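Narrative of accomplishments. A recurring question from our advisory board has been how the design workflow behaves on a single, concrete structure rather than in aggregate. To address it, we present the structure tokens for one chain from the evaluation set, followed by the sequence designed for it. No filtering or post-editing was applied between the two.
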């Protein structure tokens, strides 16, 4: 069961490449000035995309 959850999460992440890229780009551009909620908008978009995929399959 545990491996199924990890595989499902991995599929969710792989299904959201544009959101993942936007979040990663934001982090990369601002990593020297990291702070709480940095790139929160990009993270929320990525999280919502992954959650949609995971909820459909779960």
């Amino acid at each position: 069961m545990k491996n199924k959850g990890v595989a499902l999460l991995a599929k969710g992440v792989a299904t959201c490449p544009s959101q993942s890229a936007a979040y990663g780009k934001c982090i990369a551009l601002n990593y020297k000035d990291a702070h709480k909620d940095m790139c929160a908008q990009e993270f929320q978009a990525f999280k919502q995309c992954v959650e949609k995929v995971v909820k459909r399959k779960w």
